Amino acid sequence: MDMQQLLAKLKKDYLNEFPQKIKVAREQYSNSNWPELQDTFHKLKGSGKTYGIPEISEVCQLLESLTEKTPNKLSEVFQDALSLLLEIGQKHLNNEELSLNDDERFKRIQKQLA
Questions:
Q1: CA-only gyration radius of the chain, Å
Q2: CA distance to 66, 68, 93, 108, per residue, from 73 (Å)
Q3: Which of 4, 10, 59, 63 is the most exposed place for a label (fewest CB within 10 A)?
């Protein structure tokens, strides 16, 4: 297995495990566990960059900031944000792209930080 194949396998494994990471975030949110939720978004932001999925990083950067600064505003976009993250993961598994600039969910998340 060459390096490209290894990286592709690691990315695929990450994306296959991604729904479980979102489930953890959902549980943390349900328990109002803001520090752990913020940490989860921070880790997802970094892993998105590591695996070449910048959309995950962009969304999670916003969610991390919301969780840290104004968790009360997070409730207005949380479900949309998780569905967006899951869609991003699925699109990348299918080698498809998703434009965040055209996504209404992403715009609503951005608006919460304005």
A1: 14
A2: 7, 11, 31, 11
A3: 4
Full-model pTM:
0.93
Yes or no: say if 67 and 34 are a contact pair by the CB < 8 Å rule. yes
pLDDT for 1 beyond 80:
no
3-state secondary structure 31-81: CCCHHHHHHHHHHHHHHHHHCCCHHHHHHHHHHHHHHHHCHHHHCCCHHHH
pLDDT for 18-39, tens place per residue? 999 999 999 999 999 999 999 9
Amino acid, single-letter form, for residue 3: M
